[in-house]
Amino acid sequence: MNEDKATSLDKGDLRKVIDRLGIQDAISRYSMGQDAHQGGDANILQQWDETFSSNGTVDYSAAGGPVGSYRELAKWMRGDGDAPGSMSGFSNWQHMLSLPIVELSGDTAKARTDFFATHRGRADKGMNVHFNAAGAFHDDLVRTDDGWRISFRRLEVYFGDPLKIAEAAE
């Protein structure tokens, strides 16, 4: 192999790099949607509408959540204005992601991304805990006119640990 060939990218290699970056961005927008809207701010769809395909679905049954549309997931997590969501017992949270392992196949892809999430419980809601969870997102993605979008996401939970927060000394 000549040196010029070994150090240059062909258009196919460059397309793969660009695709992987677009996929990473789509996966990261999910967590950004979660983390940019803390406490009672339920506007995660601001980011999720740019994360999921228009008919995007999820399987969050591993955490007691819905198998259905990503909008059903948002309602389950954050509530609908009439009923609180599953996150209502927490005041703050942060989702940290590994780099995804990506398998590209034309205009579709599969990705697996490990995560660690920490949640601060609300003592006023009877949740005086930090809840830490680790697991993986298993995603099917599709290239759209607007970039890469998640068409299906399955949550896998490795563990979840509620850690009691010490009472403040008086």
Write up what this structure looks like.
- This protein is α+β, with helices and mostly antiparallel strands and 170 residues long.
- It contains 4 helices and 7 strands; from the N terminus they run αααββαβββββ.
- It has one domain: Nuclear Transport Factor 2, Chain: A, CATH 3.10.450.
- It has helices spanning 3-7, 11-35, 45-48, 70-78, and strands spanning 52-59, 67-69, 90-97, 101-105, 108-121, 129-144, 147-164.
- Strand 6 and strand 7 (147-164) form a beta hairpin.
- Strands 1, 2, 3, 4, 5, 6 and 7 form a 7-stranded mixed beta sheet that branches.
Helical fraction equals 25-40%
- The number of helical runs is 4
Which value, in Å, is the CA radius of gyration? Answer: 19 Å
Content of β-strand: 35-45%
- The average pLDDT score comes to 90
β-strand number: 7
Q: Helix-strand pattern, N to C?
A: HHHEEHEEEEE
Shape: elongated
Largest sheet: 7 strands, mixed
End-to-end C-alpha gap: 73 Å
Oligomer: single chain
Q: Based on helices, strands and strand pairing, what is the structural class?
A: alpha+beta
